[in-house]
Amino acid sequence: MTLILVLIGLVICLVYTALMAWIGYWLKRSKNTNGSNNHSKTISIVVPCRNEAHNLASLAQVIKHANVPIVLVDDHSTDNTFELAQTRFPSATVIQSEGEGKKAALLTGIRHTKTNHLLLLDADIRPTATWIEKALAAIHSSSSELLLFPILVSKTRGILQAFEAFDMLGLMTVTRSTANAGKAMLGNGAALSISKEDYLVCANELKSELASGDDVFLVHAMKKRGKTIKFANDNALQVHISPTKNLKSFVGQRIRWGQKSAAYRDGISMFFSWTVLVVSLWFLVAVFSLGYLAIEGRPSTPLFMLIALKILVDMWLAIKARKAFAYDIPSAALFLFSFYYPFYIFFVGIGGFFFRPNWKGRKV
């Protein structure tokens, strides 16, 4: 049994190592891709909101630097988001969503814009005071038809928040590398830019029946059409978001994100997701088997070496990502989280079958 586990582990760990090496290779490189640099871009900012009253003050401090039309769409909030938005953003268009959910709110807001390009933002982002100005300049100068901005978690001291920051750094690493390689796979809807025409063409493919995925399915739809997708590699364009409030909120959010993977039809996304899931399941079995063998006095060196290889590969990529994004996470934390990560992947993956998370007062 141990021999079979070692042989299976050897194969999948080699595949996993090759995949992570490819991600690491493209982290600081970018493939030259064709695209039209449209100097006549006119831009609107669209912000969907649901129960974001507590975030509107900080958002207003940033958006006030934007000399472009702003549309805020209230997604039937149960707090005073709509009324407060009208006060905080007197020059913006503040409207109620014509449907339910973030995707419907985005579509409502986009249909109310009169420009040919869009900057889509979440209401809970924490950009710097000069971010809007830099982001608009990047959109004007970019030849991409979909521009993805880096999203990271604000640094905090708690262990849960540190793990959330580690997890988001991993997601951004994959987002950045696959976009740089011309094989975009992920995106984060907290901040991205696209033309109004392209969004409306792709709108029917965003899986409106799913609460999540307004960003990932948009990436897949654009890629299917051969559109140019780029990642904003400039760290000055990073956007920070606050960590979730507690473990329940974090797990619920990740399960909600994970549930959309079952609807993927993009080849590289499916291959990547299944590779990570399979190697995580193998890692769990291998760790428990190694512990059992050690108790019986029959330690397995090959099994130990494969487990160590998986952890070292993850740490190597995390260190490269830490440097690329200029985002400090202690090496000790990287080791601890690299060991724990497969358990987290398994729990989140299984949890999606038994748990319907609550998102801002809604079961999703």
CATH class of the largest domain: Alpha Beta
Report the sheet with the most strands, covering strand number, pairing sense and barrel closure. 7 strands, mixed
Estimated share of beta-strand residues: 5-15%
**CATH fold call of the largest domain:** Spore Coat Polysaccharide Biosynthesis Protein SpsA, Chain A
Identify the overall geometry: elongated
Give an overview of the whole structure.
The chain has 364 residues and is of the alpha/beta class. The chain has two domains: 114 residues; 232 residues, Spore Coat Polysaccharide Biosynthesis Protein SpsA, Chain A, CATH 3.90.550.10. Helix content is 52%, strand content 12%. The strands form three sheets. It has a seven-stranded mixed sheet with strand order 3-2-1-4-8-6-9, sandwiched between helices. Strands 5-10-7 form a three-stranded mixed sheet. Strand 1, helix 2 and strand 2 form a beta-alpha-beta unit. The longest helix is centred in the last third of the chain and has 29 residues. The relative contact order is 0.14.
Defining traits:
elongated, Spore Coat Polysaccharide Biosynthesis Protein SpsA, Chain A, seven-stranded mixed β-sheet, 12 strands, 2 domains, 12 helices, 364 residues, alpha/beta, 52% helix, three-stranded mixed β-sheet
SSE diagram, text form:
Blueprint (H helix, E strand, L loop, with lengths): L1 H24 L17 E7 L6 H8 L6 E5 L6 H8 L4 E4 L5 H10 L5 E5 L3 E2 L4 H11 L4 E3 L2 E3 L5 H22 L10 E5 H7 L13 H9 L4 E3 L7 E3 L5 H13 L7 H29 L5 H24 L6 H24 L3 E2 L2 E2 L1
Helix pairs in contact: 1-6, 1-10, 1-11, 9-12, 10-11, 10-12, 11-12
